[in-house]
Structure formats: C-alpha cells, structure tokens
Amino acid sequence: MNLAIDTTAAASADLVAIAGEHAVCDPRGVLYFPELSLLAVSDLHLEKGSSLARRGTLIPPYDTAATLGKLQLVMADYAPRIVISLGDSFHDGEGASRLHDDFRERLETLMAGRDWFWVAGNHDPDAPADLPGETVMELAVASLVFRHEPSKGQVAGEVAGHLHPCARIVQRGRSVRRRCFAGDGLRMIMPAFGAYTGSLNVLDRAYAGLFRRDSLIAYMMGKDRIFALPGAMLRPG
After folding, report:
1. What distance in Å separates the CA atoms of residue 68 and residue 178, rounded to the nearest whole number?
2. What are the sequence ranges of the domains in the chain?
3. In this predicted model, what pLDDT tens digit does every residue of 101-133 receive, in sequence order?
4. N or C terminus: which one in the chain shows less Cβ crowding within 10 Å?
C-alpha cells in the first residue's frame, strides 16, 4: 500500500542527527553513519521460521533467505567498514548452528574484511556459533552507545532496538501503519529488520519516558523514502 501522507506536514528525512552524529535513515530499516563508515541494523531474528517449527508452529521457512537478501543489497549500497547488529540477530541461542551452509557462506561473505559486532540480545545472549565477529553487551563509538534494549529514561547518544517500533497516522479518513525509526535528536530506537518480525506502536506505554515528549519524531518507512512525522500526528493502535 502506498503511503498517503500530507507532505506539508511530513518532511522527507534521509539524514538525521543523533546526539550530534549524522546518519542516513534508510527506508529499508538501517542506519548508516557516513563519517564513521558504520552501518547499524537491528533485530534480524534469523532462523525464526525454524525456531517456531521446532515448537510446532509451521510457517514458510523463507525468513532467513529474505532477510539476508535484503541485507546484501544494503551492504552493497553502503560498503561499510563497521557493522553493528543490535541484538536478536538470531531468534534463539541455537539459531546460528541451524543456518544452512549456503546462508552461513553468504553471511560470512558479508562479514569479510569488516569489523562486525554482534550485540547480545534477549533472544541470543551468547556469541553465535562458529561465526566470526565480536560479541559485546554494548559498544561505544564516538558520541554514541549501541545496545539492544533501550535504557530507561532519556539517554543521549543511545542507539537501540528490541521494541520493533512502528507508527500510525490517520489522514483524510485513511489509517496508515508502518515500521519506523523513533527518535528525539538524542537517541534512536531502530525498527526490526527481520522478515518475520512484528512491530509495536511508539505510543505504547513500553516507550514511556524514553523520549522528550515535544521532540519525538517517527521516521516512518515508505517504499522509497522516509517520512518524518512529529509526535502530534501519531495515533495509537
């Protein structure tokens, strides 16, 4: 569905500021910091399909292929020197060991020649089995701190995931709900990148106290661009 958004109220926002650092806010769901040659991606949830299958929920097992395919395109566009995967990279602690050889090879090819950091998530708290890269609880780079779960209260420079933010607006009687980046100029919470991931409205109480109320911007992901929506435009649900 195409976004029907009044562009007089919603600006295009490819470049965003987070605690003084500038990043490209990509509509495919990644942040790229050109001055740092750093790409951040969150909540890949690789092997979610196989994880659910082991628990008796059968869904088409195509999530890892789709997620890696999208990641390959993003990496080809930006060619980052540093990649940070912000936790829940795998849907469970054994997800990396279940990777098909072809998927493992594709992932290792993406990682080759780069500094790659796996931030520990609540789904995957340990280092992924037999994969390169460094596993960390959090990572400080320049004025930023990358971690999986956002800290309580307002924290300058924090880039986090975990909450899978989305935003909803209503215009001309039509409701539009899409994944989004959520920020206030001090911190950013990233959308889930994985193919089989859900989302949680940024007005949900789980976000209470994380942003300055008068500065909240939802960077809603359109097909080819980002729409910067002020908090006053957002609706629950």
Report:
1. 21
2. 7-233
3. 999 999 999 999 999 999 999 999 999 999 999
4. N
